[in-house]
Write a structure and sequence with these properties.
heterohexamer; A mainly alpha; B mainly alpha; C mainly alpha; E alpha/beta; C: mainly alpha; E: alpha/beta; five-stranded parallel β-sheet; four-stranded antiparallel β-sheet; 7 helices; 9 strands; globular; binds protoporphyrin IX containing FE; binds adenosine-5'-triphosphate; binds magnesium ion
Amino acid sequence: MAEFFAMGGHGFYVWGSFGVAAVFMIIEAVLVVRQKRTLVQRLGRMVRMNSEVE
Amino acid sequence: MSINWFKYSAPSSFYPLAGKVAPWFAFTAAILFVVGLYLSFFVAPTDYKQGEGYRIMFIHVPAAWMSMFIYIIMACWAAAGMIWRTRLSSMMASALAPTGAIFTFIALWTGALWGKPMWGTWWVWDARLTSELILLFLYIGFMALESAIDDPRRAARASGLLALVGVINVPIIYYSVQWWNTLHQGASIKMSESGGMETSMTEIMLWTLLIMTFACWFYTIAIALTRVRSIILERESNNVWVKEMLQGER
Amino acid sequence: MKWVSSNISISVAIKVGFMFAALKCVISRDLTLAMRHRSDVLTTVFFFIIVVSLFPLGVGPEAELLRSMAAGVVWVAALLASMLALTRLFSDDYNDGTLEQLLLVPQPLALLVFGKILAHWLISGVPLVLMSPLLGLQFGLGSDALIMLVLTLLLGTPVLSLIGAIGAALTLGLRGGGVLVSLLVLPLYIPVLIFGAGAVEASASGMGAQGHLSLMGAILILALLLAPLASAAALRISVE
Amino acid sequence: MKWVSSNISISVAIKVGFMFAALKCVISRDLTLAMRHRSDVLTTVFFFIIVVSLFPLGVGPEAELLRSMAAGVVWVAALLASMLALTRLFSDDYNDGTLEQLLLVPQPLALLVFGKILAHWLISGVPLVLMSPLLGLQFGLGSDALIMLVLTLLLGTPVLSLIGAIGAALTLGLRGGGVLVSLLVLPLYIPVLIFGAGAVEASASGMGAQGHLSLMGAILILALLLAPLASAAALRISVE
Amino acid sequence: MLNIANLECVRGDRQLIADLSFSMGEGSLLHVHGANGSGKTTLLRAIAGLVLPEAGEIQWNGKSTRKLSEDFNRELLYLGHHYGLKFELTGYENLRVFAKLGGFDVSERQVEVALKTMGLERCVELPVKVLSQGQKKRVALARLMLQPSKLWILDEPFVALDVAAVSQLLDMIKQHVADKGMVILTTHQEVDVEVGELQHLHLGSH
Amino acid sequence: MLNIANLECVRGDRQLIADLSFSMGEGSLLHVHGANGSGKTTLLRAIAGLVLPEAGEIQWNGKSTRKLSEDFNRELLYLGHHYGLKFELTGYENLRVFAKLGGFDVSERQVEVALKTMGLERCVELPVKVLSQGQKKRVALARLMLQPSKLWILDEPFVALDVAAVSQLLDMIKQHVADKGMVILTTHQEVDVEVGELQHLHLGSH
Ligand code: HEM
Ligand SMILES: Nc1ncnc2c1ncn2[C@@H]1O[C@H](COP(=O)(O)OP(=O)(O)OP(=O)(O)O)[C@@H](O)[C@H]1O
Ligand SMILES: Nc1ncnc2c1ncn2[C@@H]1O[C@H](COP(=O)(O)OP(=O)(O)OP(=O)(O)O)[C@@H](O)[C@H]1O
Ligand SMILES: [Mg+2]
Ligand SMILES: [Mg+2]
């Protein structure tokens, strides 16, 4: 196991590459989904409030 | 992808369509990533020359390819938006830019981490590396311009124009950098290693690379579709169909 | 009747005449404005000179090192100086509302924009070209390389103004426009920089620079054709 | 009574309290304005990165040559980036009339100016410092030299903002302020550049850089004491 | 001659103008009323072609103004909140530039007369920058006397003018309408603009 | 309380104000008249300390305003041709900044009430940049309700305001004078500012 993570002495480089790539892609995915959700909430509130006024 | 984009070029009909297909792309991407990562770490054999370090290739090369593809696609969308004045096109362009920038950054980052053990340095001013760096600047310029303009309609038109100017310039930049580097053959380290790699690439390595690349493709499509849905909502929030849809939701 | 009736279509010859008059007027207007503040013209050159002179201070005085970086440093400084002057290309007109009025002039906007770019080049580009041999001498360049430096700058600085105009038009009225424009424009300048500095270095090391020069000429022609149109489109977007 | 009567002299403690509140308010106002357009903060850094990356393109990719000019290039680029951001320090406030109102605030003007400079440094200086090691790596600097690069920039960039503020205040409202300010300010930057780049080179070649650093510290203290006062005086002249 | 059909203008997330239609013929004046922020400036800029409307059509002599572009510009004189003067040039120079760019010929004498009529005889040699607010406005208005455009679009033209200048401007507007010109204007001041075929347009209840 | 003695102001080669002396006490209003370019703005800026007079003395409670500097600024509210607003901030944020810098405490509620009184309730969340000309002016005027200054100097405060806003502002001015405040203003519009101890000052015959 430890040997696997050591990557023949190149562990830092290999895991640094895949790790950062994974972190960026996961963060992007989470942000995109969240942005969509909050936007729907915000606009929904606006639409409802306007329809109450009318 | 056999979707007829033009049929769905109206945001109101594209919005639900994108919502339906995006999860499937995301799902496929996840499976491909699992398979690709398994192959990269447990199946692909150790490289006789570079040892285990070469496994960085399985993320580096797909990211580098994606960074270039996405820019071209983005510019095509922007051009379509300027020429046919379809609203959806410029929205697609803005939806793609952040993902492209992220892949560019990943390519640079993984390349640097690969270069240190292989070449003994994080960075050399090689043509390929330099043009990738310039590509990052172009992405960032596009996004900075878009975020600096408050009015979303104006932002879309301005950044679309910039992408269009960029598309004419990118090949010029690419070849000039290529030429710049070959004229000065003084670099202490050259990229000739990669040429050596091609021959040593086994079939399984090639397959792994392809699967990782497809995973990135599907990831990009899923992300772009989701993001374009947000953009559609934001820019079309005045339209009746958005209001009716939001009224229906909850 | 007091006004030109819209029913009478003006003959083409007169139209072209008016177009030339308008072009001349834009150019002379911008030149007059620059001359009202003569410091404007001088500051670009001085910026150029100072940036170039900063390098020996930062890098150290070894003559060999300085000679080998001369072409690059002069070209980068020219890039920065011309870019810095750019931020003012449209922004003054934008702030005082004269740009709005330019959009309402009965002439093709791209033509007026071309006039403005030309005036800008005369004010900020030409002085750089004239000053460059002196700076090249300071870094110990030979006479062949000096001539090549002037030639490439002569071909290259108009391209810088032309491409830069697009960036300036796009960032009009945005906060932090000055820095933003550099972010948009500098990456697009790279081919000009590479061929320009490359030509000087090639001729300094005794090689021919014909190829570089013809490429720069091609880029110039492309920019002349496309940049005014793109800038005009960008202006329409920005004024809204 | 609705207003504070001028006859009651406010106690010193309250006065100092108000002064701190005002200082905090100026800083947070400017930071808010910058954050409204997050691109503002980022563009300065990117300008810095792009300018540094232009040099290899102009000079050529030889690693040895690049290493020997690294300190100079990074420092010159930091100078230019911080100077470019300067033009906006007072000009936005001047154009929309808020500067006029700042002059009418019942607080020492030098204090408000200090707040604005501090905010400016936080926005434009600190990101440069944070980004510099990466650029040093690209040019192949060793770890000692990298640390020294960060240190000197940390001491030097506030000086750049402080001195630059004087120039920005003096050229306020003049056409072509952007270029003019660089003309006034760059010569004053030279000592900072020489000591900053010198320290990095000294430590890259294994020598101590203690002397350079303490000189830079002295310059910083001097600038902290004098620059806000001088800028305040310059502002009063410019607004009239 | 000017036809507006189903015009719709949106700013940010607010719909300022919805389904607006009207038309004006020769020798008529349109006075646009409305509270602050009701969209008067937006409407005027849309007609001038400076703002892209969300929907609707603006026609001049039956042709879309967007398509006419330069030909429509020749018939148009727009004066907005900004005066459109170069502050470094004198009033005289500013007017000459307008004339050359607009493609209409004016003699030195005509420009001088126009400036004099606006009461600027003492300021001809000064750059516009140092003039007072009202004097700047007067320079901008001097264009009305020189440019042979049929359609004047004036956004709050009376602002910053003293009593003498206001009545002078009123005379000019009346004369233009009497000469079969067309004027669209907004103003919050109470001025007497009863002339020719007068229309009133009231925008949004804020 | 405000004393002006032998004031002289020169712009370029023109002497705009020569040997002007007057004084104002609590609860009084000074209306400065004059044609365009007669020097009204110059006078107001000189009193506020933004223009250095050529000669003469400006005193507040018997002390030179130049010497008082910050202490005089505390008593002063100047609104000129520029509104002094940051266009990127909302109206609410702009007013908070004024309050903090001026060293007077206002609650969130007070600011909201002031904006509402000026009829801006629908625009609190918008950056000032996108507001109409009149709405911008209203934001600037909301300061009058928050800042506890005794001397108001208002250069053409009625410009760009619609009828409702003009009468609102008039009420505020009258209230301030009745509360023993002092107001100096210029305007070309005909408005009814008869209140308290009213003085008129006529500047130069152009
Ligand atoms: C920061 C450093 C690096 C950057 C920016 C970078 C950039 C790129 C780019 C843009 C590509 C795609 C090029 C194409 O398909 O034509 C690529 C492909 C590739 N790179 Fe890198 N690279 C870097 C470092 C490295 C290192 C250190 C190695 C190996 C020692 C490497 C090996 C490869 C290989 C094998 C390919 C695929 C080759 C091919 O498709 O022809 N790269 N890289
Ligand atoms: N991004 C935006 N979001 C919301 N509202 C906006 C936006 N941009 C502009 N507006 C609104 O549009 C309106 C602009 O109106 P306009 O300038 O045409 O008014 P006006 O009738 O000319 O007013 P005034 O009499 O004050 O000059 C304002 O009410 C403003 O609040
Ligand atoms: N450098 C200069 N040379 C000559 N005259 C100048 C110079 N600078 C300013 N002036 C004159 O000073 C006057 C400025 O007056 P000011 O702005 O105070 O007028 P005002 O009474 O406020 O007018 P308005 O009603 O138009 O606002 C103008 O007449 C202008 O021509
Ligand atoms: Mg308006
Ligand atoms: Mg005035």
